[in-house]
Amino acid sequence: xxxxxxxxxxxxxxxxxxxxxxxxxxxxxxxxxxxxxxxxxxxxxxxxxxxxxxxxxxxxxxxxxxxxxxxxxxxxxxxxxxxxxxxxxxxxxxxxxxxxxxxxxxxxxxxxxxxxxxxxxxxxxxxxxxxxxxxxxxxxxxxxxxxxxxxxxxxxxxxxxxxxxxxxxxxxxxxxxxxxxxxxxxxxxxxxxxxxxxxxxxxxxxxxxxxxxxxxxxxxxxxxxxxxxxxxxxx
Length: 235
Description:
The chain is built from 4 helices and 14 strands. With 235 residues, the protein is α+β, with helices and mostly antiparallel strands. The strands form 2 sheets. It has a 7-stranded antiparallel sheet. Strands 4, 6, 7, 8, 10, 12 and 13 form a 7-stranded antiparallel sheet that branches. The radius of gyration is 18 Å and the shape is globular. The mean pLDDT is 91.
């Protein structure tokens, strides 16, 4: 079975129910390990049904399922893959509700207070319109101030949610490695936004796939991390 076929076997709603029922720590690591194993087999054979995309927010993204307004991805932060260059900043908000389960590592989300501050704002709001692997960042000219608000830290085996429309940045603590199963549900009328410099005009950025050799190293490293984080000692 291909990696896509394995992913399709566990739908968004099933994963969400596992997380809400508190059983995800028993099921999702093994599922994610099988997904990585399938992707590695396909990549080693020179084919791949799941692209490994260098996300501009610093992680490797494996998009596994997209059905209407619902999506399932694996997000992997790893030193094996160079981060994609960013033209704005790590502060952003989604047009979709996020529910994530931490496979390994420590993820900290810092919510941001963003307030209109024309003409004294230090950053401007960009609208992000994505089509395929192309992101169009539209400068709005809306000058804003941004300041850190409350933060939340999530460790191996924990889950977290972020509502649509909440500005935040995501940091990886206690090292360079982390991975999450990320569920997204699109919300009506929402938009993807990013904060960036005042002097940057509208522009387009094409998302790039990770180098083949880097991808293999990253996925092997991630599979080992999942196994180490969730294996039970023998009695």
